[in-house]
Amino acid sequence: MNNSDPAIKVVNLVKKFGDFVANKNLTFEVQKGEIFGFLGANGAGKTTAMQILCGISLPTSGKVTIAGLDLNKHREEIKLKIGYMSQRFSLYDDLTVKENFRFFGGIYRMSKSQIKTATEMLLDRLDMMDKMNDIVGSLPMGWKQKLAFTIANMHEPEIVFLDEPTGGVDPLTRRRFWELIYEAAEKGVTVFVTTHYMDEAEYCNRVCIMNDGAIVALDAPAKLKEQYGAANMDEVFLKIVNRQKK
Amino acid sequence: MIRFWAFVKKEFLHILRDRRTLMILIGLPVALVVLFGYIISNEIRNVKIAFIDYSNDYLTAKLRNEILSSGYFVEDADFLVPAMATDQIFPQVEYGDIDAVFKKGNTSVIVIFNKDFAKNIEREGTAAMQIVADASDPNTAAILVGYIQGIVNDFQKSLFFSGRESMVIDVEPRMMFNSELKGAYMYVPGTIAFILMLICAIMTSVSITREKEFGSMEVLLVTPLKSSQIILGKLVPYVFLSIFCSVLIFVLGYWLFDVPFKGPIGVVILLTLLFVAIALLLGLWISNFTKTMEVAMTLSLVALMLPTLLLSGFIFPIESMPMFLQVLASIIPPRYFLEAIKTVMLKGGELVDVAREVAVLVFMLSVLVVLNIRGIKPRLE
Prior knowledge:
By secondary structure, chain A is an alpha/beta fold.
């Protein structure tokens, strides 16, 4: 893959469930190392689009290229290059922190010693070394999310997909979480994140706003605010959505 | 394979971490076997019985012998009537003494033969006997009466008088369960069928729907794990657990309660594995069309556990069910498993003797394989 190639390239992506069109002709690119936000109300089609990009769901039509590989032809190779974390599920609650690392390391074919080194290094960075043998269920939500993000990155993927990763935590904890995202992006990892928190949208390099299955705006947060004459992303979002309704 | 084993290891951890469920899964078969074992072995075996024989002829002596040699009864020494000793003074217990005998608290059943028992059978084809049971424990009393009636039934079948095909001793069987006397040990295969259904069907379907409900299935599908690896990985730990529990039940039954193990062990293993496979596929099938643990659990309870308990012949004899229940019973797998295990374990049957049951089970297994292959939704829609 060339350095100038986009990490994700989507052309005319359509997803239909029967008569319902969840994704209408999506076309966009995400650059390598970019933090790309996918915004929209519930039911706007964010999660559907993300599931297609992750290979959980098949597109009805359109062309998707992930890490330079065609999604239709190289599904298995792509899986090794991506990481995934969703709000609904962070980690196995009944396993210890270490066992979670071991399991996810194991399914990416990491060796025992690799897993051990990675676990220690990553936990040390999170300042959670003493939690190694704790049951994940006993940890606070914010910690679990950080752990889940770290584990999604353990096999050093080129792209991580985060599906509303910070649901149910306070803004301060969200901010801490975003520090981890910045760290990853600095190392060249592409971050694709869906959210409905507008404060999070401000943290993204570029955001794509979806409404009714279609992309209605796509630019850097600062430029969007300028374009719509809004003070923050919240206003931008409301203005766009209201204009759509008319 | 590394991936697969990582997954299996995780599944084992889930099972081991959930101590309460694990204790139930291991504790329940032990409790059931011990419970059934004690009820049947101690209460129904070595029951004190007394005979009042007003006839004391060759037939009553034979019948007394049959009852005593069944292994369930011992003659109460206090009221021993020496067999075949026609010159002895009898009866030793008078009608009026029955009350006193029971009050002493040792004797549970008294069998009374009327006068001229053999003579009446030979001449008129009918004779009367009476069974008096201590019904302060009504269940046990009913079982005991049932057993004696069963023995008498068998006995009269062995009698053959020229020109008479009809029953010669009029008995009205009123057995609560165990229509066959030999079925007293049915609780061992019955418990196995019950536990295997519990472990294989319920646990498997719940464990798969749990991943769906918590959303971890999505995460697993994004990883390089194949869906076949996920499903097999789910099944493997439960195969181990069910084999462990089956062995536990057999061993407990055999060592603690002398449950006979007459047939070849290989056939029993084959039958058990066959049943494990069927139960696993049933659980898997249920998890195909259920999305939450609660639905999966309820569905398995109603569709699998209840029939296993009620319709398999474990508790109620199938022969005495109404027609439509008999039809229903004929399509549930545990019924054939129980029948086959009974034949092999208790009657010492070989593989040929259970060929029909094995064939039915193999057929059911293949139907389930097909159903599962068609039912498992392709992960990509």
